[in-house]
Amino acid sequence: MGNLEVFYLIHSLSSKNQILDFLMIFGAEFLIYIAFCLAFYFSFKGNRQKKALLLTLIAIVIGYLTVKFIRLFVDIPRPMLAHNISPLIATPDSSSFPSSHTTTMAILTFSFLYYRSKAAIFLIIFLIWVGLSRIYVGVHYPLDILGGVVIGLLSVSLAVPLLEYLKKYSRSL
Question: In which band, very low, low, confident or very high, does the pLDDT at 54 lie, cut at 50, 70 and 90?
Fold first, then answer.
């Protein structure tokens, strides 16, 4: 199955069940805020979680810049524009690739996974929920979601040595 076929498979479930629509709209728009609140809450619970939150903040800058850079050269219209469908949420007509929501959730998830935080299990569930919901509501293709996850992973991978360097540099001052 290709990108478009998987998109239609998932998106075709929308507008058939009010509860599922509510859950997916919530996941597409608001779950990311709950995830950050959870991350901040857990950061008060232990040192690993504090480190994970700091790693998240550094990696988000890297991820944001990466998404912006990619969108300078890759302009894929969102599904609602390219295929004349009605999305369940309002969204800007910016490039579909990559999903910035998924990138942000992936950064949060991989940061907490890196430090083996107990919050990671919730964040993995939230990442899957956000990714699927962005397709379900009609604003992203599956490859946009995959691209967001990959950029999230790469951003955390780049942020780890940067964080280590900053720690080392701050000790030498």
Answer: very high
Query: In the chain, what are the domain boundaries?
Result: 36-172
80 within 8 A of 40, measured Cβ to Cβ: no
Taking the C-alpha atoms of residue 129 and residue 119, their distance in angstroms, rounded to an integer, is 15
End-to-end CA distance of the chain: 55
Model pTM? 0.92
CA of residue 19 relative to chain centroid, distance? 23
- Concatenating the DSSP letter of every residue in 38-86 gives HHHHHHTT-HHHHHHHHHHHHHHHHHHHHHHHHHHH--PPPHHHHS---
Query: Do the beta carbons of residue 158 and residue 152 sit within 8 Å?
Result: no
Residues above pLDDT 70, as percent of the chain:
98
d(CA 129, CA 169): 38
